[in-house]
Amino acid sequence: MLELSGKIRDAMLTFEQEKVMEAVESSLKEGYDPLEIIRAISSALKEIGDKFSKGELFLMHLVIAGEAAKNAISEYLEPLLKKEKTDRKTIGRVVLGTVEGDIHDIGKNIVASMLFSAGFDVIDLGKDVPVEEFVRAVKKYNPDILGMSALLTTTRPMQKEVIEALKENNLREKVKVIVGGAPVTAEWAKEIGADGYAEDAIEAVKVAKKLMEEKN
Amino acid sequence: MNPKGGQLKFLTNDELYEIHAATMEVLEQIGVRFLSEKALRILENAGAHVDFKRKIARIPEYLVKEALKKAPSRCIVYGRDFKYKMKLEDGRVYFAMLGWVPYVLDLESGRRREGTLSDIELFFRLGDALENIHCLDWAVWPNDIPNSVVHAYGLYMGFKNTMKPLDGYIYGETAAKDNIKMAAVVAGGEEELMKKPLLITIENPVSPLQHSKELIEGLMVYAKYKQPIVIAPEDQSGTTAPVTLAGLMVQQNAEILSGIVLVELINPGAPVLYGTVSTIADMKSGGIALGAVEAGIINAVTAQLAQYYGIPSRGTAGTTDSKIPDIQAGIEKAMTLMMAALSGINFVYSFAGALESTMTISYEQLVIDNELAGMVIRALKGMRIDDEALAVDVIKSVGPGGHYLTQKHTLENFRKEHYIPTIINREKRELWEKAGSKDMREIAREKVKKILKEHEPEPLDPDIEKELKDILKEIERRI
Fold it and tell me: Fewer CB under 10 Å: which end of chain B, C or N?
């Protein structure tokens, strides 16, 4: 087990997607359980997160590691778990997207990657997502949290419209709503009746975790 | 991408020649006062026209040309560990901590007070840890030891607490000899010291057109031991120099060149730097305005003249007339430092930590100036142009609508392309508020405390330390 976590950790710390994939593949061949490998990946992500907090690593390191972990888990490990009829243990499900009229998605992508790294099950609806699609996704996936990003002052009102549509469809009580994006402030989040708001991706994870605690 | 200046040029070559020609007229017809018999004799023997009664030497152009021919186009100043060095040449730019000032801004009270020996040690330790400050100096005049041993204790503290190059004290022949003796111990003998200079020192002519006895006789000691000497007048436009900047440059040039002539007569080939502390006078009070924008222009033209003559240069930039680390300090320092650096001045002296027209040194300001120096060094690196930097491959692979955050190209290049700040705050408002809404001075103060708590300078060899202490005792007995 020590050997496994060391190997995965070293691969993750190269910040090279291929190295992570190789390490996961060879660990599977050696007969390690997919769940154990996921645990090793999570602990490496935690170490990377700690290094970031100390200022030793930068945002891109978090995102690269997050994406590598996500790819390894969704491409290799989760399909195997499904076969075995077990699930990756997640701390909650998040559906997120950039609102209609807005094609800025790097911020939303970073948040998605961070949430995944923190142990959430993340469903990313992409960018320029219409109001109805947010509603449909909430019905279909039954997430704990819905996240909406808007980078433009002109698209920010769409966040409010989605919340209104959730109310009309009697879905608002079923899901926590978090909003983000450059023009979004705590005041705005309160005004439109969102449950949470974060200034950046690091904060977003904290807010999401807090909302999960409130929910449970 | 090596950090190099030289991008900023205010004058054309023809205009530089005009300054040179005007200067020759001043040197030949008016001359410069040397308040030292020894110096006047040396100059007379070489062919200058000396009036011993008025102590003035009129210097013909051929003496200037001979001196410039003998003066090296480059020099290196070493720290006690030779891997710390300043290669004063080409467009390379190095930054020094302020030194020898009367006051310090107390870290706790924020008030100005007189300095102590303990301040000297703390500033050396702090400066030793700051990556963009290349040369250190004993920061403040200590009022808790006798005046006549300050030069020796100052240098001892330097050798003890940093491996970076240091500054030698020049006021008077005895003090200069003491410092040379100490540096020779660290270098491993006088011969070694001459090969690898450890002390850079400054002679400031007293404008208009005078060299003081103490400085000239100190200078003669350093010249003998081939330690780099900076000739740096403090002409003030409107009071001690013509109000026109060009006129100031002519007078300054005469002062510098006359100093260089003397150095090269004492020891041909001795390294000299073409320097300036000049700026404008504040025309309301008559006081000096070291933070003036004009100081930036004067620094840049000084660098140009030094390049014209083919010798290394020294400026005084990144200074301020503000009393505390505030917005005025930020504006004045950033403006003058950037101009000086972009002109390719080799050695920026009296800079880091400086406040109040270099009357006061501040711990917080030193940390802030380290950040400013880092940003200026980044500017000197400019923009790299090659296939990897043009990044067509990575633009192709990301494509419209993608992002670069996860690209290997980003990971491999961001540290080379971006200056990574140490105390500049770029957090969003809410996070900044949560962390206590601290301004830069407060953040810098915290960093000072952290460094002083954690940073241990590389210890000095115990045998060398003992020898230095013996010299200190000897000097104390002498008085």
Answer: C
pLDDT digits (tens, 9 = 90+) for B30-85: 999 999 999 999 999 999 999 999 999 999 999 999 999 999 999 999 999 999 99
Q: Which two structure tokens, joined as six digits, stand for A17?
A: 């997607």
Asked if A59 reaches chain B (Cβ–Cβ under 8 Å), the answer is yes
SS3 state at B145: coil
Closest residue to B406, CB basis, from A60, A105, A186: A60
Fold type of domain A93-215 = Rossmann fold (3.40.50)
Nearest to A63 among B401, B405, B428 (CB): B405
Predicted model pTM: 0.90
Architecture of domain A2-83: Orthogonal Bundle (1.10)
ipTM for the predicted complex comes to: 0.77
Chain A residues whose beta carbon lies within 8 Å of the beta carbon of residue B421: none
A206 touches chain B (CB under 8 A): no
Put simply, whether A75 touches B (Cβ < 8 Å) is no
Longest dimension (CA), chain B: 81
In order of their start, the domains of chain B are: 68-381 (3.20.20.480), 387-417 (no CATH)
Distance CA(B265)–CA(B262), nearest Å, equals: 5
Query: Which residues in chain A touch residue B417, judged by CB atoms under 8 angstroms apart?
Result: none
In the sheet that holds B279-281, the strands lie side by side as B236-237, B279-281, B288-289
- Residue spans of the domains in chain A: they are 2-83, 93-215
